[in-house]
């Protein structure tokens, strides 16, 4: 018994297969972003704890709550941007390799590789927002440091 498929049928099948892969990769990206944000929040909390005396000195010379908030959030955003930069540099060759592997696995030929600069810019915006959000609670804790806390700190 012979069967035939139209070109539209083949495209629909391939589209469905790649849809599953894209959905899986998006879920993984969201999970990695959440874990990265939590890691950054922990790192910034430890950073604030280790710099209690420094923050106390800033307070003693007249640094406002807003200034302390901005310093800690700026550090968190800088860490986030540096991690994005490293990820962006690694993404180009790894994406090309993954594109070829998926194309060969599903279609027995490499896919046409296109690297999305718009996607890269969107991820930068997301990283900056997530880093600022993850740094806010540690920054808030840093801004509430009083002179008494600094004198009592034994770290």
Layout of SSEs?
Blueprint lengths: L6 H44 L1 H9 L4 H43 L9 H27 L3 H6 L3
Helix pairs in contact: 1-3, 1-4, 3-4
Helix content class: over 70%
Q: For the CA atoms, what is the radius of gyration?
A: 24 Å
* Beta-strand content bin: under 5%
Tell me, briefly, the overall form: rod-shaped
Number of helices: 5
Structural class computed from helices and strand pairing: mainly alpha
Mean pLDDT level: 88
Main beta sheet strand tally, sense and closure: none
- What's the total count of β strands? 0
Give the CA-CA distance, first to last residue. 80 Å
What this model shows, in words?
It is a single chain. With 155 residues, the protein is an all-alpha fold. The chain has one domain. The protein is built from five helices and no strands. α1 packs antiparallel against α3 and α1 runs parallel beside α4. The chain starts with 6 loop residues before the first helix and ends with a helix.
């Amino acid at each position: 018994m012979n069967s035939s498929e139209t070109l539209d049928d083949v495209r629909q099948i391939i589209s469905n297969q790649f849809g599953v892969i894209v959905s899986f990769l998006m879920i993984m990206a969201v999970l990695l972003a959440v874990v990265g944000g939590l890691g950054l929040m922990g790192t910034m909390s430890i950073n604030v704890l280790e710099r209690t005396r420094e923050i106390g000195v800033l307070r003693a010379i007249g640094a406002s709550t807003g200034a302390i908030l901005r310093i800690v959030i700026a550090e968190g955003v800088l860490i986030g941007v540096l991690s994005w930069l490293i990820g962006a540099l690694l993404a180009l060759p790894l994406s090309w390799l993954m594109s070829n592997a998926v194309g060969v696995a599903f279609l027995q030929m490499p896919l046409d590789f296109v690297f999305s600069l718009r996607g890269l810019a969107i991820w930068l915006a997301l990283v900056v927002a997530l880093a600022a959000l993850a740094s806010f609670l540690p920054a808030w804790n840093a801004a509430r440091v009083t002179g008494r806390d600094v004198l009592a700190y034994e770290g």
